[in-house]
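ok so i was messing around last nite and threw this chain in just to see what happens. nothing serious, just curious
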Amino acid sequence: MKLVDLRKLAIKKQHRIRFHMRNGMECVMDQRGVALVPGLDRIPDFNMEQELEAASTFVLEPLNVGEKNAPKSRTLAREELAVMVSAGPGAGHHDEHDDEPVPDPTAKHSR
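result:
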């Protein structure tokens, strides 16, 4: 499981995914797929991929936690999260459009 897998899951499910790092800090992958380390005020002296490899538990937080009947945060073991990542539609499948550049909506086209 790689950071890109967590990013895809966080975006698809619109969840935050948290895990603790070996230095005692916590990484939060937000719903936009951005990995954040709250309290980090310097250039990191760690490799995020290596920290992810060492993590054993993860907390999935739905964005609508405060709403009535909203799903609750849940803690998953590494193996459980790996199953979620691999069970997603297109898991292990390369989308034929992944390599295509995103069109610039501000570009002027001549007709």
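not much to say yet. Residues 3-87 form one domain.
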